[in-house]
Amino acid sequence: MQTNLADWARDTDLGREADEILRRCVHCGFCLATCPTYQLLGDELDSPRGRIYQIKEVLEGAEPTMVTQQHLDRCLTCRNCETTCPSGVQYGALVDIGRQIVSERVRRPLGERLLRETLRRVLGSPWFAPLYRIGRLARPVLPAVLQSKIAAARPAGALPVDARRHTRQVLMLSNCVQPAMMPSIDAATMRVLDAIGVGARFATGSGCCGAINFHLDAQEAALAQMRRNVDAWLPLLESGEVEAVVINASGCGAMVREYAHHLRHDPAYAEKAARLVEHVRDVAEFLAPMAAEVRARMRVAPGRTAFHPPCTLQHWQGLRAVTERLLGELGFDLQTFADSHLCCGSAGTYSITQPALSKALRERKLEAIQETLPEHIVSANIGCITHLQSGTQAPVRHWIEIVDEAITHG
């Protein structure tokens, strides 16, 4: 694609990066076939190719409007288009740039600003957990849209005693929402790791990965969160006190793996972030070499299972095959279903900011899953789990919870 960037963009880091990405696009349109929003809306402006054109026009001097912003907002950032693209267009990085530039030039309506600010302040705050507990108590009288966002309580169960007794030690991410919504996931992860002789803990000073802020027009706040995690984790990793950061929420894992990209222009953190990323592992990726050891401790096989691979697992991190191979080795009887490569509609806060599109994608996903008549519906990301659960009575869980039960209860 030929480009002619405006003077204000040509000599900036973001402009040069965007120009390089834009020039890789050859207009082939393969991305249209795998874009969830294009499939639903049939409007090319709501496809990757259409959004690429809109970002290009802005960088070449066109004034963005609320309509431009709306089309960029509707993108799920699932990156299915990147998996499909034969030219290797880094669409995810480009849409991040486009959104940042447009947000600086287009003032959102008051309602949107309030919603996005509230989501940022609440989801990433230490008082989200008590608010969520109050929400559970008040759930019967809340509006339906809020009821659907509040998952039923799942007891975490007992944590391992003295996990530091193990020679092998790892860090886990102090997710901002998962401990409040489903503490059973972290607890199950720690018990499974403990069963194979690996201690897991949280680093003092670490916190949210930054994804919520980053995708809600607060990229500087997100960068600050990234730097804080680098400072909390890297000394422990490089001292040999711990061997990896093991992440059990693929959305968080996808963001942490990109710390080096997001901090690339920070002279104090670019190199440190690159060193950190080398130690980041999804929980399936970490357990894969020890699959036989985990399986030997499981008293029962999990049985007929529908596994929804989150977009952040399969398209961002390329770990779908690793995860499915591990689940097969652990005795999960995985069932194939239609369009498993497509987004479920969760996409972080997308289910709140774009409820109609999100719900349509969720219903399509659940319909395909239910056709397999699974005993278990599992996924690998807190967002996908809660979103799918809001549309079905069948329990939707993290696969690590099923493994933990097979070990501890049988």
Structure notes:
The structure is a single chain. With about 400 residues, the chain is of the alpha/beta class. It folds into four domains: about 5-105, Orthogonal Bundle (Fumarate Reductase Iron-sulfur Protein, Chain B, domain 2), CATH 1.10.1060.10; about 110-145, no CATH class; about 165-285, Rossmann fold, CATH 3.40.50; about 295-410, 3-Layer(aba) Sandwich (Rossmann fold), CATH 3.40.50. The protein has helices at about 5-10, 15-25, 35-40, 50-60, 65-75, 80-85, 90-105, 110-125, 130-140, 145, 180, 185-195, 210-215, 220-240, 250-255, 260, 270-275, 285, 290-295, 310-315, 320-330, 350-355, 355-370, 380-390, 400-410, and strands at about 170, 200, 245, 280, 305, 330-335, 375-380, 395-400. The strands form two sheets. It has a four-stranded parallel sheet with strand order 2-1-3-4. It has a four-stranded parallel sheet with strand order 6-5-7-8. Strand 7, helix 24 (about 380-390) and strand 8 form a beta-alpha-beta unit. The radius of gyration is 21 Å and the shape is globular. The chain starts with 6 loop residues before the first helix and ends with a helix. The mean pLDDT is about 95.
